[in-house]
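Question: Now follow the chain.
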Amino acid sequence: MAEHSNVTAQLVNYIRAGYPGIWMRTSEEARAVAIIQRAAIEIGKVPDCAQMNVFMWSFTEGFHGSDSGLNGEAERKPDAALALIDPRAKQHLPGDSVIVLKDFSAFLDDVGILRSVRDLMGTLKDTGSVIVFLGPVLAIKPEIEKDILTLELPLPDAGEFGDMLDNLVENNKKLKVQGDKLFSVPREKVLDGLAGLTLTEAENVLSLTIIEHATFDDPALKTIHREKASSLKKNGLLRYKESDRGMEDIGGLDLLKKWFEYRKVGFTAEARKAGLPFPKGVLLVGVQGCGKSLAAAALANMLQVPLVEGNVGDWMDSLVGGSERKTKEALATADAIGTCVLRLDEFEKMAQGSESSGRTDGGTTSRVLKEFLTWLNDRKSPVFCAATVNRIDALPAEILRKGRFDEIFFVDLPTKSERKEIARIHLKRNGLPVGTFDLDALAAASEGFSGAEIEQAVIDARYRCFTDKGPVTSEVVVEEMKGTKPLSVTMRSQIDAVRERLANVAKPASSPEPVTAASGSGRKLRT
């Protein structure tokens, strides 16, 4: 329980240093109270320090705590509560006290309450007492923000989850088996699956898993991931995605797949023991519809870790400081989730205009990008970031420099052999008899197509044949392809510009097609 212990030790130091006010932001009230009480006990173990009293106040109950004897209807009022804290009052709480005010932010809109709090910040320093404002919202008024320290309670770590899991297993009669046979998947995978949840959320998820499965196996692990997805939806910053696509569902991109295989070992315990740094991530740049997002999903499936998706546009906020706060919160949530693939589609939205940000948006975009780059460089969590970009011209130079991501890959239009493989994959996914199709004809007809455009041609052919009540054939699919104007036509200049800019920056995701007299250049734009 290292994280839990660290917060307790941190709180002990703040209280001993004489901070008069601490704002602890968390939705886990019971867990925070336990940490505060533990800190008070730890202070009592320090030489020449007395154990501190702990008093709790809420609007519904008033004061209660260490033999306070102060319960009463009057103390439910916030002004009366502050009067009892004031050491200058005739009747007041004893010194050397930790006074926890729950959900007090709502009362700070009252000018009298705000003034009283401000006065207390100056008088408590001499008494050894401290006020801890406890709640899920950080709403410090400017008048008192310089007097109050902010302390964010991190989400639980594997040690806390492990203690809770052990208690649930010990006291639950619905389990089929006990002991070693209870886990057909590693216990660590169960705990990793809970990362990113509060203790209450994790307890609910585990209880449901026990009821549905009565053991911890692969289906149980999927249930844990599914329920965690519901929790992630609450703040709207990250989404858990079910990934049913594997590397076999990607046509081509052989060099990218090979690189994934090399980086796969970085997720193992052996790599940690050998001192290998955890993989940072990959930047996938290229033509729309050519498999960038699919590759990230397939990587998560290959690693058997959650795929978490972040929409950078959702992190931008019109309020001053809101975008930076949302970005920091989203990345902190990813850190808390633990081992996962964090997919950031259309990553250019975060960086677009960062160089002129000071003139156009007060520097918001620049600060958001800096927040992300700092996280990418400094984080210790096992989060693999897969960022996809369609518009390379929107990226500033600091994103493309070596070392930001582990590697930058350019995902170009598929070659002829890749188009053949992509056609085979989508024919199979659509339930069509692949052996009856002329894959070479489909590959030739789809010159200049992206993978998504080949997929759509197959779907369009199915709709047409379903309406005409005839079989889907190579000829029908070819006709649909000939009637399509692909991106290689409509966005030719942009694709050429991307290729030119990435020539010395990014690695190709696919091997070049051999040039023969019959095939000509392996990768073309339509004219």
Observations:
- The CA atoms of residues 335 and 379 lie 8 Å apart.
- The two ends are 63 Å apart (CA to CA).
- The longest helix spans residues 451-468.
